[in-house]
Design brief:
46% of the residues lie in helices and 13% in strands. It is α/β, with parallel strands linked by helices. The chain has five domains: 221 residues, Rossmann fold (3-Layer(aba) Sandwich), CATH 3.40.50.720; 266 residues, Rossmann fold (3-Layer(aba) Sandwich), CATH 3.40.50.720; 216 residues, NAD(P)-binding Rossmann-like Domain (Rossmann fold, 3-Layer(aba) Sandwich); 135 residues, no CATH class; 246 residues, NAD(P)-binding Rossmann-like Domain (Rossmann fold), CATH 3.40.50.720. The strands form six sheets. The protein has an eight-stranded parallel β-sheet with strand order 10-17-16-15-14-11-12-13, with helices on both faces. It has an eight-stranded parallel β-sheet with strand order 27-34-33-32-31-28-29-30, sandwiched between helices. A seven-stranded parallel β-sheet has the order 3-2-1-4-5-6-9, with helices on both faces. It is elongated, with a radius of gyration of 44 Å. This is Malonyl-CoA reductase.
Length: 1220
């Protein structure tokens, strides 16, 4: 052979040069004038080939060289290349032809260790990957610096890298990876002027291919020649045989050599990244992929009773997202991590999730799963089988690492390549192999039905550098899946035919996220993973690509999780007005209603929070596919529901934006004053009632005409469990204003339902404590439990000081002014050691010192400014005259008055107390309540009811409303002799007349003081009781709107009261509560009239109670409005509204009274029944009812002897509501 030809002057390195194809390549390259270096591991074979070429073709020794090296070892390759370059100066052509056959075994039987080798499996999986992928990669990397411009790299792959090649995963999977590597190398080396191309030989005519096919037939259980016949039938081209007849036959090694010479020569100078298939035109698809173009529908996916194994590398975020999605569908999840570090990081993330999610969070199981130690994989399977999960039903396999080793494949070091080969290629196949082995070992009970196991290989997201290594792994996984599916199907057919009850065949896909790195992309991929693993859906294409722009492709930016899918369309076309919509329950209701298809107006005071909520909801709407999201969510910032003008503006803005309102969600409200009744300012009480209750009526009054006219509407009041239940009130100490307002919201729904129907539904929801920002606290604002804890500590100190002063005043001759002056040094030790101080005060000081926290100034100081102000107000309110500035020079104790530890300890008690009353042992979240509410709104058959999404909360004390039974004992009635009775009221003239006479004439009261609103009322009572007026036993005081001053006047003139009976000054309104459809609403109870109703029927009793509760020896009966057989339906409804709402106050102050020095009895007497049919119908029944009224008042106001006022008895005699 001469040194002329198409390759004359070129230096060519052909790996595996002594093999079947390699030797032909060597001969042809020599014939075309190239100097050829053949490499391999076997020196003898290389030497024999070189000598044969010299002898047969007359090639001079200088044109054929050999280099013995192990191409799978980069160190050996580097030494070999350096030796070649030292001898020849450069390398012009690199032909990566060397490799190995790989084990001819099914996936489950691939040898992983030397001990597993045997016939048909002469090398381990690790060796196969190193030989078939590692060799070519090492040679390209290491030879590239020595290749001049115009050089060529030819990688010899195989057409079987994209064929269903049974039992040959160790061979075809690395070859598929080599195909992707060639494309990436072509781009990288192209910048240096080096072209890279690939040859795909088909089955080459030889004894070797016949042996391979024969072995494959044996593995598949098919007749000999079946595999060869199958592949011959895929060939388009027939060629003439030696006799000239056309036939389908396998290509020859010469055909491969022809292609290689072309790619090595200048004739292919314009080609790079190309492939030449030397296959006689075998019809095998170049790829099997599609894009996921639609959102998943998870509503029908039920993975209950199924377990999914997540085989992870270090992808914590992906694992958390997958776990959440799979659990949403009902699947149990087991997670295996390839490294101890990733496992520890995940456990830390889980602990954080547990802290945020609460006690009901169940952490997933996480175990080590290292493909380099296959026993750890088997241990995970054993664990799953031992935990009654039914074993592993599906698997998700993630890459070994979440990051790419490098942005390039040529300029990369040996360690990164070797780790990639071991972890991402070999490791992935090992996991698949163990899964295949596990599922093949499972057997079904005869007659049982089962789904086939499912597997998803989930790639990493886009890395912004082309995901070069991810693409190599994806190519390998694609071929792994193709052959695994093929093997699984054939094996299942064969086993079923033999009567073996094996699992149905495995079905696998890979989801590729290279085009998308967003959170939406991850959620989209997780949703598709859940659907493909746990539904009957099969996608034949192997590779499923996540689109770069999910929103543009699918019409939604992400897959909706199960709960959102079930909401979409539930309230489509509706318009909702939601107050308090910037956060908390209101914000979540707005969010979920919007997701359900409603258009929403969110109203609140804080513009910034509203805008944040609006943006979040609009973003979610866009994600799930709604259009014109900006028009679906409007906000009304600066809306204070305690302002009537702003409520009117809110309705106008909503109607201007949407034209109508279908749902009114009265959610806005305030926490209230958070004080005991005796310390609560009247204006604070009024503000709470207006914000939480009167605003509800105002909006209802404004929108009900529209709802009636349009024929439908829904009003929902967001009340609270502490607003009570039907026939039972819930005491809520330190929160009476809040409890009353919430009870009123509930009562409003109960009594207005009959008037608003049939067009309008009105209901209430009453959650208990809700886990969320408002409970936990945000920023500088402490949460509910912390606020309650501080209030409890301050009130305990206040109550103890107040009680000690009252106890001292009862026995000490000094005035209250003089007693209070003993506190002015504000020194616990000084008070304890002051011999002039009353025993009660000295003993209290001793307890403060001995039981206090030394780190808190409360152990050395008696009061802080807040407690001093409350104490002064309480004493003033109780009728003690003190200088307003008596505490002006009080030494101010240093902070903290109560330590953080004290507050936290008390807060834990509050929380533990609440948790102990929850049947479910967990508080619902704001989202939970909102979700329940949105479904509740969809029920068109409920009105006048209250729904309690409270976690099963049951309070320890629920004073009920009940019928009158019995009279006080003679001992209690005897205590009335000589007493002073206060009767407060004006409207219930007949009741007050009879009651005054009963006290004076039957039970020996010394005097009755009648406190009325007007002089006319006073004249009326004096006329009715003129005999007692003349006897000097009945006195009247006109209060006007100064009820507190009137009580002080009564105390000053006539002494402190015993029984006090508080009745309304004014009657109930007699106007309609609603108008008819399309009728005039001008005569309907107005917003102002409803506010007056609350003032005269609720606030009136509050003002009296906060005074009387501080009066020694008093007992108080709060009387609600009367209705009779002649009362209107509206009056009957309003009376029930008042009695239900007021009972929340009565129950609360009843409990608070137990904690004060006076411990007065406080109860309620109701003059209205729930059913009108029970009202008296004739004068005789009327007289009976009046007598029952007197008995009821006596029952609750007759003094309880101190020795009888035990904890048990006290609870019976306080907070009750007695119906006459």
């Amino acid at each position: 052979m001469s040194g002329t030809g198409r390759l004359a002057g070129k230096i060519a390195l052909i790996t595996g040069g002594a093999g079947n194809i390699g030797s032909e390549l060597t001969r042809r390259f020599l014939a075309e004038g190239a100097t050829v270096i053949i490499s391999g591991r076997n020196r003898a074979k290389l030497t024999a080939l070189a000598e044969r070429m010299q002898a047969e073709a007359g090639v001079p020794a200088k044109r054929i060289d050999l280099e013995v090296m192990d191409g799978s070892d980069p160190v050996a390759v580097r030494a070999g290349i350096e030796a070649i370059v030292a001898r020849h100066g450069q390398i012009d052509i690199l032909v990566n032809n060397a490799g190995s056959a790989g084990a001819q075994r099914r996936l489950a039987e691939i040898p992983l260790t030397e001990a597993e080798l045997g016939p048909g499996a002469e090398e381990t999986l690790h060796a196969s990957i190193a030989n078939l992928l590692g060799m070519g990669w090492h040679l390209m990397r290491i030879a590239a610096p020595h290749m001049p411009v115009g050089s060529a790299v030819i990688n010899v792959s195989t057409i079987f890298s994209r064929a269903e090649y049974y039992g040959r995963i160790p061979y075809v999977t690395p070859k598929a990876a080599l195909n992707a590597l060639s494309q990436l190398a072509a781009r990288e080396l192209g910048a240096r002027g080096i072209r890279v191309n690939t040859i795909f030989p088909g089955p080459i005519e030889s004894d070797r291919i016949r042996t391979v096919f024969q072995r494959m037939d044996q593995l598949k259980g098919r007749p000999e020649g079946d595999t060869a016949h199958h592949f011959l039938n895929t060939m388009r081209l027939c060629r003439a045989n030696d006799q000239g007849a056309l036939e389908r036959r396998f290509p020859s090694v010469g055909d491969v050599a022809d292609a290689a010479v072309f790619l090595a020569s200048a004739e292919s100078a314009a080609l790079s990244g190309e492939t030449i298939e030397v296959t006689h035109g075998m019809e095998l698809p170049a790829c099997s992929e599609t894009s996921l173009l639609a959102r998943t529908d998870l509503r029908t996916i039920d993975a209950s009773g199924r377990t999914t194994l997540i085989c992870a590398g270090d992808q914590i975020e992906e694992v958390m997202a997958l776990t959440g999605m799979l659990r949403t569908c009902g699947s149990e999840v087991i997670i295996g991590f390839r490294s101890a570090a990733a496992l520890a990081q995940f456990e830390q993330a889980v602990n954080e999730s547990r802290r945020l999610a609460g006690a009901d969070f169940t952490p997933p199981i996480a175990l080590p799963l290292d493909p380099r130690d296959p026993a750890t994989i088997d241990a995970v399977f054993d664990w799953g089988a031992g935990e009654n999960t039914g074993g592993i039903h599906a698997a998700v396999i993630l890459p070994a690492t979440s990051h790419e080793p490098a942005p390039c494949v040529i300029e990369v070091d040996d360690e990164r390549v070797l780790n990639f080969l071991a972890d991402e290629i070999t490791g992935t196949i090992v996991i698949a192999s163990r899964l295949a082995r596990y599922w093949q070992s499972q057997r079904l009970t005869p007659g049982a039905r089962a789904r086939g196991p499912r597997v998803i290989f989930l790639s990493n997201g886009a890395d912004q550098n082309g995901n070069v290594y991810g693409r190599i792994q994806s190519a390998a996984i694609g071929q792994l899946i193709r052959v695994w599916r093929h093997e699984a199907e054939l094996d299942y057919q064969r086993a079923s035919a033999a009567g073996d009850h094996v699992l149905p065949p495995v079905w696998a896909n890979q989801i590729v996220r290279f085009a998308n790195r967003s959170l939406e992309g991850l959620e989209f991929a997780c949703a598709w993973t859940a659907q493909l693993l746990h539904s009957q859906r099969h996608i034949n294409e192997i590779t499923l690509n996540i689109p770069a722009n999910i929103s543009a492709t699918t019409g939604a930016r992400s897959a909706s999780v199960g709960w959102a899918e079930s909401l979409i369309g539930l309230h489509l076309g509706k318009v909702a007005l939601i107050t308090g919509g910037s956060a908390g329950i209101g914000g979540q209701i707005g969010r979920l209603l919007a997701l359900s298809g409603a258009r929403v107006m969110l109203a609140a005071r804080d513009r910034h929070k509203l805008e944040q909520m609006q943006a979040m909801i609009q973003s979610e709407l866009a994600e799930v596919g709604y259009t014109d999201v900006e028009d679906r969510v409007h906000i009304a910032p600066g809306c204070d529901v305690s302002s009537e003008a702003q409520l009117a503006d809110l309705v106008e803005r909503t109607l201007s934006a949407f034209g109508t309102v279908d749902y009114l969600i009265n959610n806005a409200g305030i926490a209230g004053v958070e004080e005991m009744v005796i310390d609560m300012p009247v204006e604070g009480w009024r503000h709470t009632l207006f914000a939480n209750l009167i605003s509800n009526y105002s909006l209802m009054r404004k929108l009900a005409p529209l709802m009636k006219k349009q024929g439908s509407g829904y009003i929902l009041n967001v009340s609270s469990y502490f607003g009570g239940e039907k026939d039972a009130a819930i005491p809520y100490p330190n929160r009476a204003d809040y409890a009353v307002s919430k009870a009123g919201q509930r009562a409003m729904a109960e009594v207005f339902a009959r008037f608003l129907g049939p067009e309008i539904q009105i209901n209430a929801i009453a959650p208990g404590p809700v886990e969320g920002d408002r409970l936990r606290g945000t920023g500088e604002r402490p949460g509910l439990f912390a606020r309650r804890a501080r209030l409890i500590l301050e009130n305990k100190r206040l109550n103890e000081l107040h009680a000690a002063l009252i106890a001292a005043a009862r026995t000490d001759e000094r005035s209250m002014h003089e007693l209070v002056e003993l506190l002015l040094p504000n020194d616990v030790a000084a008070l304890e050691q002051n011999p002039a101080a009353p025993t009660a005060l000295r003993e209290l000081a001793r307890r403060f010192r001995s039981e206090g926290d030394p780190a808190a100034s409360s152990s050395s100081a008696l009061l802080n400014r807040s407690i001093a102000a409350k104490l002064l107000a309480r004493l003033h309110n109780g009728g003690y005259v003190l200088p307003a500035d008596i505490f002006a020079n009080l030494p101010n104790p240093p902070d903290p008055f109560f330590t953080r530890a004290q507050i936290d300890r008390e807060a834990r008690k509050v929380r533990d107390g609440i948790m102990g009353m929850l049947y479910l042992q967990r508080m619902p979240t704001e989202f939970d309540v909102a979700m329940a509410t949105v479904y509740y709104l969809a029920d068109r058959n409920v009105s006048g009811e209250t729904f309690h999404p409270s976690g099963g909360l049951r309070y320890e004390r629920t004073p009920t409303g009940g019928e009158l039974f019995g009279l006080p004992s003679p001992e209690r009635l005897a205590e009335l002799v000589g007493s002073t009775v206060y009767l407060i009221g004006e409207h219930l003239t007949e009741h007050l007349n009879l009651l005054a006479r009963a006290y004076l004439e039957r039970y020996g009261a010394r005097q009755v003081v009648m406190i009325v609103e007007t002089e006319t009322g006073a004249e009326t009572m004096r006329r009715l009781l003129h005999d007692h007026v003349e006897a000097g036993r009945l006195m009247t005081i006109v209060a006007g709107d100064q009820i507190e001053a009137a009580i002080d006047q009564a105390i000053t003139r006539y002494g402190r009261p015993g029984p006090v009976v508080c009745t309304p000054f004014r009657p109930l309104p007699t106007v309609p509560l609603v108008g008819r459809k399309d009728s005039d609403w001008s005569t309907v109870l107005s917003e102002a009239e409803f506010a007056e109703l609350c003032e005269h029927q609720l606030t009136h009793h509050f003002r009296v109670a906060r005074k009387i509760a501080l009066s020694d020896g008093a007992s108080l009966a709060l009387v609600t409005p009367e209705t009779t057989a002649t009362s209107t339906t509206e009056q009957f409804a309003l009376a029930n509204f008042i009695k239900t709402t007021l009972h929340a106050f009565t129950a609360t102050i009843g409990v608070e009274s137990e904690r004060t020095a006076q411990r007065i009895l406080i109860n309620q007497v109701d003059l209205t029944r729930r059913a009108r049919a029970e009202e008296p119908r004739d004068p005789h029944e009327r007289q009976q009812e009046l007598e029952r009224f007197i008995e009821a008042v006596l029952l609750v106001t007759a003094p309880l002897p101190p020795e009888a006022d035990t904890r048990y008895a006290g609870r019976i005699h306080r907070g009750r509501a007695i119906t006459v």
